[in-house]
Amino acid sequence: MKALSFWLKEKLWITPAFYIVISIFLSIFFYYVDLLYIDELKPYVPAILLTNVDLAKTIMGSLSGALLTMTTFTFSTILVVLTMYSSQFSPRTLKNFVHDKIVWRVLGIFLSGFIYNTLSLLFMREDLYETDVISTFIGIIIAFFCLSTFAYFIHYIATNVQVGQLINQLIKDTEDAISKFEKLQENEKGEEITWSPIGIKDTYQAEKEGYIQYLSFEKLGNYAQEQKLKVEILVNPGDYVYEGKPIFHVYGVNHAKQSINNFYSLGTSRTTEQDLDFAIQKLVEVALRAISPGINDPNTANDIIIRLGRLLGQLGRLKTGPFLLAEEHVLYRFPAYKKALYKTFYQLSHYGKEDISVLISILESLKVAAEMGAKRHYVELWEIHAYVLEDVDIGALKTFDQEVLQEKVDELAIATDQHSYHLVLTKKN
Hints:
By secondary structure, the chain is α+β, with helices and mostly antiparallel strands. It is 62% helix and 9% strand. It has a five-stranded mixed β-sheet with strand order 1-5-3-8-7. The protein has a three-stranded antiparallel β-sheet with strand order 4-2-6, covered by helices on one side. α3 runs antiparallel to α5 and α12 packs parallel to α14. The longest helix has 37 residues. The radius of gyration is 30 Å and the shape is flat. The model has no long low-confidence stretch (mean pLDDT 86). InterPro entries: DUF2254_membrane. Keywords: Membrane, Transmembrane, Transmembrane helix. This is DUF2254 domain-containing protein.
């Protein structure tokens, strides 16, 4: 089911196609209403809502042209926004707009309005109808609805193309991914136990290449308990696997073979549903674009960096390393916290080392992570700050810049229970 869900998300034409099918059924339905039942409905329908065939042709022809123009404008707007997302934010953020249901619903509504009026216009023949028709009134209602949708679409695009909205959405995606692992570890407690499986070792391998988009821990755990097996997960969400790469080690006796596709989902691109590295990477890339000379928007980058600290703090509360699931039937290795810190800051520290505001934001982010996270990661947070400042020429900074940077280092030392040091003297030595 999860593989089907990811497949449906990738098929963007499904939503517009659904609305088009509805419009086709509506046009056929009201064609038969006008043809067979309009005389019976006349006592219940105000005469002003009925039109003759000639007037119906004129109105529907005009509506079809107008709706086609609106559809073309909407499609052009979508392409412009996609270009902006790719050039100003990050190519990885395109999916956040492309998979937005509102966008494709609006496009589907416009297409369905055009198709309804065009098909109804095709059905308008004087030799078929002996009385007035109601299809035109329905077409006008649909056109009014399309016009309202168009106004909403303009407002929606103007609001959601702002970088602040994108950041909020990316942060929400990351928080959702973190919460899934929090729930997983909370239910299983995740205490470290010696892994010593007994039985015949069987290796499940990938049947094709791609990225691990989803691991079904619950389904795998249920399978392991039913078959009385011990299962070792060898991959993490976001890992690239090739055909034949080992995915699981299964230990047991006479267990029924089951397709490994039931336990994980492979795709051609990474997703943020369980892939924490990818979720954070998208935020980092937006920040990198912001501090690039072409965009030159360091304040946006600083806002993202500080908010990354809150996410890293939440991530720091998760248990890292190996832990057991499904009543000790499944072994999963959660990536090390230091690895997440490195992947978050190694590019930011390189491209932002010349901007004092970026360096200050990184130290502030680490302090937030320390205040929100677990004490067991204090040393790692302190070490990553040293890595960030390692290539910075402290002596070349202005006096006030040195003072503020020193203040942030002192605050981080307090937050992580470490001993602070003097930046300038350390660099000179």
